[in-house]
Amino acid sequence: MYSIRAKVLRKLPSACPLCGLSARGGDLCRGCSQDFVGCVRRQPRCDVCLDPLQASIEYPRRQPEVHCARCREVAPPHACLVAAIDYAYPGDLLIQRFKEGGRLAYAGLFARLIWDAWKAREPASLHAPSLGALVPIPASQQALGRRGFNPAGELACELARLSGCSLKREWLSRTRESTHQKTLDLAARHQSVQGLYVCKHVLPGIWVGLVDDVVTTGSTVRTAALALRHAGAAGVVALAAAHTPRAWQNGAYD
C-alpha cells in the first residue's frame, strides 16, 4: 500500500499531463478525466474484450456479466478486461510518452486509473474473490534494449503498491523472441503469439491480475492468461493502461 508520504504527495498541485490545467498529484484534471477516462466506463461494452455493444441487440439491460457475440462463441481464458483509457487521441499521447518517452511517472497515473476502474466493477459478478497476485506481461529483449524498461512491469509495480497484491514477475516468461507486432495485421498478431508465454511454476488457486500496457487484438493477453490458468491459477483478470478500439485492429499501426 502507498506510504503516508506518497498519499501526501497525491494531494499536491500539479499540471494535468494532457491539457496542462490545474490538477493534483500528477493525475488528470477533472475535465480530462471525464472526457477520456469516463467514456470507457459509460459506454456499454463487452466485459471480456471491451468492444462496444449494440444496445438494442446485445445490451438490453445491465447484467452481472455482459459478453459480445464473439466472446460468447469462443470464451477467452481471462474473465474480463479492465482498461484505463482507449488508445485513441489524445490519450494515446500519454501512452506514447510513457512507453517511448520514458516518462515513468505515468505508470503511477495509469495504475491509479486502472485500479479505480477495477474497484468500480463488481468482482462478485465474476464469481471471483479479490486478486491474489499481479503478473506483468514480459517484454522482449529487443524492447527492453530499446526502452530500458518494461512498461507492463512498471504498471504492475505501481498497481502492487496501490492494491497490496503480491507482484510476481517470475510467474510468466517468454519462450522466444517474437516479431514486432506494430508491423502485423490482425491474423498475423494471433499467429505470432501462439505459445509465446509459459508459467514454469505450480500456482496456488488464486485469481491473478495480468498486467499489460496496451491491449490491441487481445492475442497477447489470451496466450498469457492461458499459461497462468494451465499452471493452476483459479482465474485471470486482464488489467491494461489502454485498449485499442476494434476499428483500428485490422491494420498495422502503433
Overview of the molecule:
The protein has 254 residues and is an alpha/beta fold. The chain has a domain at 76-248: 3-Layer(aba) Sandwich (Rossmann fold). It contains nine helices and nine strands. It has helices spanning 4-9, 30-42, 69-73, 91-99, 105-120, 141-147, 151-163, 186-192, 219-230, and strands at 13-15, 22-24, 80-86, 133-136, 166-167, 173-174, 197-198, 207-215, 235-243. The strands form three sheets. It has a five-stranded parallel sheet, with helices on both faces. It has a two-stranded antiparallel sheet with strand order 1-2. Strand 8 (207-215), helix 9 and strand 9 (235-243) form a beta-alpha-beta unit. Helix 5 packs across helix 7 (151-163). The chain starts with a helix and ends in an 11-residue tail after the last strand.
How do the strands and helices of this protein lay out in sequence?
Layout: H1 4-9, E1 13-15, E2 22-24, H2 30-42, H3 69-73, E3 80-86, H4 91-99, H5 105-120, E4 133-136, H6 141-147, H7 151-163, E5 166-167, E6 173-174, H8 186-192, E7 197-198, E8 207-215, H9 219-230, E9 235-243
Parallel strand pairs: 3-9, 4-5, 4-8, 8-9
Antiparallel strand pairs: 1-2, 6-7
